[in-house]
Write a structure and sequence with these properties.
Number of domains: 1
Strand content: under 5%
Helix content: 55-70%
Order of helices and strands: HHHHHHH
Number of helices: 7
Shape: elongated
Largest sheet: none
Distance between the termini: 113 Å
Radius of gyration: 38 Å
Amino acid sequence: MKPTWLKWCALPAAVWMAGTLAVAQQQGSSGSPAPAPAPAPAQSTAPAQKTDPSIAQRKENQQQRIGNGVQSGQLTAGETAHLENKEAAINGETKADRAANGGKLTGAEKKQINQQQNQVSKQIYQDKHNANTQNYGNSKVGQRQTNQQQRIAQGVKSGQLTAGETAKLENQQKGINQQVKADRSANGGKLTSGEKQQVNREQNGASRNIYNKKHNANTQAGAKPK
C-alpha cells in the first residue's frame, strides 16, 4: 500500500512544479511586464494666431495682384499706370521714413503705410472687376499691344520692374493705345498703312524701354538684378 500511496501523492506535486517552472521561464524570456502607455499630451484647441505681413511682403503682394491683372487683361494700361504711381509714392515714402530713422519704421509709420496699402488694395480690386478690359483684337497691331502687356506683366511679377518703371511703361502704352483708338475712329475702324508703320515704330521704342528697364539694376525688393 505504501508505494502506491506515494505514487499518487507525488503526481500532483510534479504537475504543480512543472507549471511553476513554465511560468518562471516565460517571465524570464519576456522580461518585466510592459509599462502602461503614457497618456497622449493634450492638444490645444486655440487657433494659431496670424501675424500681419511685413511692409515688404505687403508690397510684393500688391505687385503680384497688379501683374496678374495686366496678364489677364483685367487691368488696362491706364489703370495699371495709375495703380503703380500710387505704389511708387508709398515706396518713396517708406524709403524716406527708413532713412530718417536709421533704417527702421516707427509703429505710427507702419500703421500709416498699411492704411495707404489698404486703399490701393481696394482700388486694385475695383479696377480688376470693372467693365474696362484689355482687348486689342487679332490684328498685327492688336497682337503687338497684347505682347507688350504680357512682357510688362512678367516684369512686374518677377520683380524686374519697379512700380515707378511700370508706371512709365504703361503710360507709354496708354498713349499708343489712345492714338490707335483715335486713328481707327477717324477711318471707320481701320488703320492706314502709314498709321500702322507709325504705331510699329512707337512700339519698337517702347519695346526697347521694356527691355532696358527689365535688365537694369533697379528691382523690387527681393528680386535679383538681371
